[in-house]
Amino acid sequence: MANLNSVKSNVLSVFYVDAFTKKPFSGNGAAVCLLPYDYDVNNLTRQKIASEINLSETAFVKIIKEGDTFQNGKRFALDWFTPLCQVPLCGHATLASAAVLFTEYNNESEVLEFETVSGILKAQRVQDNRIEIDLPAYKSDLVYGKYEKVVKAVVKDLPVENIVLSVSNKLLIHLCDNITRKELEGITTNDAELLTAEPTDIKGVIVTLKGSKKDCVDEEGNQYDFISRYFAPWFGISEDPVTGAAHSVLAPYWSNILQQKDFYARQCSRRGGELHIRCLCDRILLSGNAVIVIKGQLHL
């Protein structure tokens, strides 16, 4: 167990965590930076730290109640930064933060609570050494024509079943069922082309495909209900390896299409990762494994 609660105020504990995977060097990497009760850094410094670390997201977990520690605290403040900017929601960095508290600090709480700009997010340990987080469920509506340039820039001439836009400004492109996993994984994008095609409204593009027994299975032969990829150059991320926030859009969408509430999904980036999802009324429960790969100190 880490013994890093009592560090000098200008030396902070930092961890690199691979989320939504059981193996190092896969899933989505996030940095988790811990801030004690009596020390903080402003957003400008947080942004510099995130840019220096240069992972897709850096999470800042802060003790907010005097007397709490990372071992016994139940509620913490949580913020997320990409190398470019602060973001309103990040699922994999939330899961990574919970993994650090539960694994490295043996946190005593059954349920952790994080105060974020997107409201209170909860995390708890569940079966198979997974951590479950609750996230908002974002509804989406069909859109026609307006985002044709973006769609073309991402999927080229692949046939499209539906195009929807979520209230979180993520564009979801549902490919036709005859498209293969290999074709989805073969998609390439150009950041400059995407930013030129849609410079304002869109904050991310999800490309998704219904799972099949033919080629959408894990190493044990279990079928994925759906697979996806996610591109977000608007936040300085060409492609995010595994994205919890994207599944806040994907799960409600596929729940409506497939008429089911529980899903097993894979995000098919180069690193890749697997997610277990349950749809509730206005929330989703998202669970996955996490591996801590680097532990260290940040000197300010």
Helicity range: 10-25%
CA radius of gyration is 19 Å
Report the strand count. 17
Low-confidence stretches: none
Average pLDDT rating: 95
Topology pattern, helix = H, strand = E: EEHEEEHEEEEHEEHHEEHEEEE
Beta-strand portion reads 35-45%
Give me the number of helical elements: 6
Structural shape: globular
Instruction: Please give the alpha-carbon distance between the first and last residues.
Output: 24 Å
The structure class reads alpha+beta
Assembly of the depicted chains: single chain
- Main sheet characteristics: 17 strands, mixed
InterPro entries: Phenazine_PhzF-like (IPR003719)
Keywords: Isomerase
Family: Belongs to the PhzF family.
Active site: 57
Briefly summarize what is shown.
The protein is of the alpha+beta class and 300 residues long. Helix content is 20%, strand content 37%.
Description:
- With about 300 residues, the chain is α+β, with helices and mostly antiparallel strands.
- The protein has six helices and 17 strands.
- It has a 17-stranded mixed β-sheet that branches.
- The longest helix is centred in the last third of the chain and has 15 residues.
- The mean pLDDT is about 95.
